[in-house]
Amino acid sequence: MTVEHTRDVPLVGRRERSRRRMHDNLYTAAVELFAEQGYDGTTIDHITERADVARGTFFNHFQKKEDLVTTWAEHRRRNLEGAMEKALALEDDVTVQLERCMSTLADFNEAEQDLTRVMLTAWVKSGQPLLEEPHYAGSVFTQVIAAGQSRGEVAADVDPLLAGNLLRDAYLGLLYRWTQDTESRAPLHVELRALLRIALTGILSYAQRGWTPRNAA
């Protein structure tokens, strides 16, 4: 590494590292408590007690308890983008890429089902779906669809952003129902694969579209 390159790399000072550690400590304590006793049953005092800090410290990092839900959603988005980063560089068929994306999301949620149920419910109740920045919604889906469109795999008149947001909205709706049904639900992988098939092929019968089962295959 050259001296010139080193100057371009921002150094994180001790104070900033300490601030980040405290932020992460508070977030981790909160998420643990949400999973143990629910979002509504957890107070800021509970969180600061678990994190072993003064109550005022919480407000140096979060304005209100709902900000922890926003942070959780942001972590999920970043985890998805990180998991899909290498995949997006490949020129796999758009269907393969979308299936990979849905499978990754299923892995995230099935790995922590109880926490997902608690946090997603709190996310919805706090109105976060309405407050989320438009360009966040369906960003990975949008990238996959735009790449597929550039290769001629997606219809030229399809708006990638609209299609990406549609898939994102459908995914969140399915996920919310899946987390609430703890008795008879199918594996999330199966549910998301079925959702994607409908999104990609439509709901009209072959006859309605002028197709036959043979040429539809």
- What order do the helices and strands follow? HHHHHHHHHHHH
Q: From the helix content, strand content and strand pairing, which structural class follows?
A: mainly alpha
Helix content: over 70%
Query: How would you sum up the major sheet?
Result: none
Strand content: under 5%
Report the span from N to C terminus. 55 Å
Mean pLDDT: 85
Q: Taking Cα atoms only, what radius of gyration do you get, to the nearest Å?
A: 21 Å
- Backbone shape: globular
Low-confidence stretches: 1-7
Number of helices: 12
Q: Could you tell me the number of beta strands? A: 0
Describe the structure.
This protein has helices spanning 3-8, 14-37, 44-51, 55-58, 66-89, 94-111, 113-125, 128-131, 139-150, 160-180, 188-201, 213-216. 70% of the residues lie in helices and 0% in strands. α2 crosses α3. The protein is globular. 20% of the residues are buried. The protein has 217 residues and is an all-alpha fold. The chain is built from twelve helices and no strands.
